[in-house]
Amino acid sequence: MSMKGRVIVVSGPSGVGKGTLLKKLFAESDLPLEMSVSATTRPPRAGELNGVHYWFLTRDDFLARRARGEFLESFEVYPGGALYGTLRETVLHAVDNGKWIVLEIDVKGAKSILEQIPNADTIFIAPPSVDALLVRLQKRGTETPEDLAKRLKQAEQEIAESGFYRYRVVNDDLDVAYSDLLKIFNSLRESSAI
Ligand code: 5GP
Which one of 61, 99, 125, 144 has the fewest beta carbons within 10 angstroms of its own beta carbon? Predict the structure, then answer.
């Protein structure tokens, strides 16, 4: 039996716990999951590795690659900020090999992927409230106050635009959210067997 490849888009505001949930899923699942490594022009945070968390590119390199059509989608996630993009080759190669490639990208990116790959699965991870998100971001402490304000504004917008996602997980209690996420992936498994 061979598995069909899948494209799974996971979005959610910064600080909602996407990373934690996906990390747990990747560690515990026996599904052929693969994380899509995006390219970005933002500088690496402490502990982030090139080719693992992102491909860290200069703006010139990013724009040259974009002009060559190397991205399936690319956006300034925060207005006036860094560019982020999904590499076409990464996704196509994974799908060809029967992988379930997971794209952790923003809402604009998700819309663009759906236009090109209508049968992509889309999951939105929402915070219980914007206030709860603020508390989490403050605890994480990786953003400057200006960045924090930008991310919160972005979060409100993303939540407002998230109606088109096929699945929704509210991350209030991590264990509950994880079990909801598992249910979604298990239901995908049932529909993918050939
Ligand atoms: P961060 O800078 O915290 O790593 O990511 C900021 C935002 O960029 C997150 O919402 C993340 O989902 C989004 N993002 C990361 N990679 C991509 C990408 O390739 N395309 C798009 N559209 N958004 C991305």
Answer: 144
